[in-house]
């Protein structure tokens, strides 16, 4: 097992990792920018190191500063959390060159799944169902038109190195295609430094279903069920739940086994999430995230398995602590991502939290690094915390999360709590009758104000 882990992240995920380390008896090092000197994980860590000014490129993305922090403190492993350098293969390689363990997959698998075109090719070879589309990057408008006619409009133009909805445009007809290609290429170049794009069939009313996996890097792997992440705004997840109200036990087991078998063949190491669009009973692979996910607590609540603990143990050379048959799914869980944003316009609302009272009670979990008097800085994402609720069934879970949201107090800044209070009382959400476009339509129709 590792002696000391440096947590190369901030906010609630840094605190989540710190808690797992404490429970494993591992010493912790918190790194922080000058804007995060009063952060909760900095206060609770065994040691802390300031790695630069507020801009992420000068602190949390500053690999030399992180290496120096490892050397100063004697950390023998780095946990990257999610975002920042979590899926940076070169960072993992540099750590290895300095004999520091990277708590995550191999650089090879990070690169493979980070390239959306190669990831799709690999998924197809491994027997994972994929969305119909081009086999590789599109080099010209003429080539794009041939593919689009073959698979049928509408089509989705996607950045090969993309993520978070950037470099992604819909072409509903031949007349739209050229502009969609140009815009997607421009966004991809600006966001990722790579303007390569490819085409996929655009599904009109799919759900977003993802499968949580865990591999030992030696050919052993298990799946921990699915999460339904269909409530999205601008391709960003807003609410997640498990199990999905759209799947039955047979469908869950079938797609889970397909993914677990693929991870065994790949010899995947650590946690990962294979994401699908699901429509009319069919699954279509879209990407794999080679890191811990923001929404991982949903899976932890229904399985009782500490994913970060397992992630650390496996990175240290340990075996997966259970078999597929050992994993059982109990009850239902829902997570709301509470952001420091105006609930109607989504305008960021950084600032000082004057009063803070998280909800509690049976089955209620809040993953947050904020506290009363804390100031949310304007330099990073606007996540205040994640409210996760577990119940014996979906109805109990919905009743519990309604109650918990009514208890939640974050005063001094605007948050998306009012949005969630409305959503969890909406008949469509209560019935599980929604898809990836539902929230956008709801907001466009003035659902929050109505």
Rg, Å, rounded: 21 Å
Number of helix segments?
A: 15
Q: Give me the CATH superfamily of the largest domain.
A: ATP-grasp fold, B domain
CATH architecture of the largest domain: 2-Layer Sandwich
The order of strands across the largest sheet is 13-12-9-10-11-14-19-17
Largest beta-sheet characterization: 8 strands, antiparallel
Question: Strand-residue fraction?
Answer: 25-35%
Q: How is this structure best summarized?
A:
This protein is α+β, with helices and mostly antiparallel strands and 450 residues long. It contains 15 helices and 20 strands. The protein has helices at residues 11-24, 40-44, 63-73, 89-97, 107-114, 116-125, 141-151, 174-192, 249-266, 296-303, 307-315, 394-407, 417-423, 427-430, 438-444, and strands at residues 4-7, 27-33, 47-52, 77-79, 101-102, 155-163, 166-171, 197-201, 207-216, 221-233, 236-242, 269-279, 282-289, 332-339, 351-352, 355-357, 364-368, 375-376, 383-391, 409-411.
Walk me through this protein's architecture.
The protein folds into 3 domains: 4-86, Rossmann fold; 132-201, ATP-grasp fold, A domain (Dna Ligase, domain 1); 207-444, D-amino Acid Aminotransferase, Chain A, domain 1 (2-Layer Sandwich), CATH 3.30.470. Helix content is 34%, strand content 27%. It contains 15 helices and 20 strands. An 8-stranded antiparallel sheet has the order 13-12-9-10-11-14-19-17, sandwiched between helices. A 5-stranded parallel sheet has the order 3-2-1-4-5. A hairpin with a 2-residue loop joins strand 10 and strand 11. Helix 7 (141-151) packs across helix 8. The N and C termini lie far apart (54 Å). 50% of the residues are buried.
